[in-house]
Amino acid sequence: ASVRTALVVRSDEQRLPAKPTLADLGRAPSVRWITVHDAIENKLLLQAGVAPEQIDTVPQLDQALRALSQGKADALAISSVSAWNLVTRHPYWPLEVRLMGDAPAGWPAFVFRLENEPLRDATNQALQDFLGSDEHTALVRRFGFTDEELPPDQP
Fold first, then answer.
1. Is 132 helix (H, G, I), strand (E, B) or coil?
2. In contact, 14 and 30? CB cutoff 8 Å
3. Element spanning 6, H or E
4. How would you class 57 by CB atoms within 10 Å of its CB: exposed for 0-12, middle for 13-18, buried for 19 or more?
5. pLDDT tens per residue across span 57-102
6. Is 33 in contact with 73 (CB distance < 8 Å)?
7. Considering just the CA atoms, what is the radius of gyration of the chain in Å?
8. For residues 6 and 80, is the Cβ–Cβ distance under 8 A?
9. Torsion angle, CA of 97/102/104/106, rounded to 10 degrees?
């Protein structure tokens, strides 16, 4: 599965299109952005042409969501999985997810010590049979993955 950047915005947000592109982000000079400190989305916003003074960062995601819901920020840039999870957990706030179709995809991974080849190989073998299965799809959907993040053919 891949993970792309998404935006969480209030449902009445008009300055950003329903399917925003990276170019759209830089063409919205009045939008106040919020991200989590050191998140890849900070770099992505700057690369898209968003001015640094338009971006505020906070240490935790719940603070970003609070700033957005209170009108202190207009858009939260975060991973699509996190975005869907936030909006689903807070149905009483008028928020929506807008997927960034042209944002670079990130690939979740497991990390092993170099000397632990047997564990790495056993994990890869188990994943070979699991990834793409009905059980895998059902499991990751619970965490906010959509069909757009699940490739049709797993490795």
1. coil
2. no
3. strand 5-10
4. middle
5. 999 999 999 999 899 999 999 998 889 888 988 999 899 999 987 8
6. yes
7. 17
8. yes
9. 40
